[in-house]
Amino acid sequence: xxxxxxxxxxxxxxxxxxxxxxxxxxxxxxxxxxxxxxxxxxxxxxxxxxxxxxxxxxxxxxxxxxxxxxxxxxxxxxxxxxxxxxxxxxxxxxxxxxxxxxxxxxxxxxxxxxxxxxxxxxxxxxxxxxxxxxxxxxxxxxxxxxxxxxxxxxxxxxxxxxxxxxxxxxxxxxxxxxxxxxxxxxxxxxxxxxxxxxxxx
Length: 201
Hints:
By secondary structure, the chain is α+β, with helices and mostly antiparallel strands. It has one domain. It has helices spanning 3-14, 21-29, 155-161, 168-200; strands at 114-115, 118-129, 132-139, 144-148, 151-154. The chain has a five-stranded antiparallel beta sheet with strand order 1-2-3-4-5. The longest helix is centred in the C-terminal third of the chain and has 33 residues, at 168-200. The protein is globular and about 50 Å long.
């Protein structure tokens, strides 16, 4: 690593891990790949290639990552809340424990990314339903997974586990589960329409 990159690294560590986009890009270009626990909140990193880097525990709150290549990176326990991830490449990334609350995920590539034990083929971030952060995931085998709050289970498992005592918490969980199921079902309907159109052509 060059001396400039080393000086930047030391400065950032002394400044509570806050790092600017320019500092990060300089370090990455110099060969650094360990950016665990850095604070990149609200930084602009659009169109950058940051593949294969360790961002575990990093703070990307509100960061702009439009069309950024983050493939193969480690984002375990990272904060990506409110981050702009449109057309971002997160294929093969580690996302276990990551927060994506309020993130912008238009055409984000999650293929092959891992969340806990799920290898993701497709993912939809439904949003926050009261206190529940809701994700809908399809794995490479076609199994449907749903994350409600901090718990992730298959769609079938949730159907057996959802409480039905008419309490406020129960009603909220059923609403959140319903939104996730709607996402899966809408995807299936869309694929069926495309398949029918191809047959007719």
